[in-house]
């Protein structure tokens, strides 16, 4: 079945760039998403990319997709303490509307 | 536009009881999906409703059920609660138009604790 994997933890200093990585197995993935979850809250959709794109930029966020290697990354420029949260990668494959989520990467931003 | 709303936000129930959770999607969104989030299993898909019909179902026992009303509001029900049902239940709505990217917008969740 589909599988999405992420590293568990990332620590960066305020002002640095953060790069959160994700790999997936389903070659029929059509859309890939990044969500942010703060403590006690639901998931906030940050951005998404269609599988025929290589890159998408949205203000401080840059998504890179390597479809050949099934690798997705989220770069956050000028990381702030308010970016501290858990970041989830998710994919949607052809014929399914349910999203498959990774286990989440906890981003810790140190002042 | 108002976001996805879920009620109640917190719930404590006893084993064997049943519970009903409610979700109101973003105005104009016709698809509602439910997910269970636990520390051990992460985010798992429960089911999706569109036009009052269940369209997709995850790998959960029949104790978990749901429905959708004509105004797109949805409810999910869990009968005969078990300790392992303690989780954050998240509802997500999607516009599902022909040009949409199937993005899902989540509500704040209902935290269910089973004792």
Briefly note the structural class of the backbone of chain A: mainly beta
Determine the number of helices of chain B (DSSP H or I, runs of at least 4 residues).
0
How many distinct beta strands of chain A? 11
Q: Ranges of chain A with pLDDT <50 over ≥5 residues? A: none
**Largest beta-sheet details of chain A:** 6 strands, mixed
* Count of helical stretches of chain A: 0
Estimated structural class of chain B: mainly beta
**Secondary-structure element order of chain B, N to C:** EEEEEEEEEEE
- Give the topology string of chain A: H per helix, E per strand: EEEEEEEEEEE
Q: In whole angstroms, how far apart are the ends of chain B?
A: 37 Å
Helix content of chain A: under 10%
* Radius of gyration of CA atoms of chain B, rounded to a whole number: 14 Å
How helix-rich are the residues of chain B, as a percent range? under 10%
The low-confidence runs of chain B, each spanning 5 or more residues with pLDDT under 50, are none
Task: Provide a descriptive summary of the structure in words.
The complex is a heterodimer of chains A (111) and B (115). By secondary structure, chain A is mainly β. Chain A is built from no helices and eleven strands. In chain A, the strands form two sheets. In chain A, strands 2, 4, 5, 9, 10 and 11 form a six-stranded mixed sheet that branches. Chain A starts with a strand and ends with a strand. Chain B contains no helices and eleven strands. In chain B, strands 2, 4, 5, 6, 9, 10 and 11 form a seven-stranded mixed sheet that branches.
């Amino acid at each position: 079945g589909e599988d999405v994997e992420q590293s568990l933890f990332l620590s960066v200093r305020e002002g640095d760039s953060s790069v959160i990585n994700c790999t997936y197995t389903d070659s029929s993935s059509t859309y890939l998403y990044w969500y942010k979850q703060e403590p006690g809250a639901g998931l906030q959709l940050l951005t998404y990319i269609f599988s025929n794109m290589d890159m998408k930029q949205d203000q401080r966020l840059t998504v890179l997709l390597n479809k050949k290697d099934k690798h997705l990354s989220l770069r956050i420029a000028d990381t702030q303490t308010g970016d501290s949260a858990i970041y989830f990668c998710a994919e949607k494959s052809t014929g399914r509307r349910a999203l498959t989520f990774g286990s989440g990467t906890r981003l810790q931003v140190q002042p | 536009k108002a976001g996805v709303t879920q009620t109640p936000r917190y719930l404590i129930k006893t084993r064997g009881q049943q519970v009903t959770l409610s979700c109101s999607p973003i105005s104009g969104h016709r698809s509602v999906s439910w997910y269970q989030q636990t520390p051990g299993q992460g985010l798992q898909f429960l089911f999706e409703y569109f036009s009052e019909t269940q369209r997709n179902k995850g790998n959960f026992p029949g104790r978990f059920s749901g429905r959708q009303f004509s105004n797109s509001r949805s409810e999910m029900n869990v009968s005969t609660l078990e300790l392992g049902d303690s989780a954050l239940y998240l509802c997500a709505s999607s516009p599902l138009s022909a040009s949409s990217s199937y993005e899902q917008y989540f509500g704040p969740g209902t935290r269910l604790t089973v004792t």
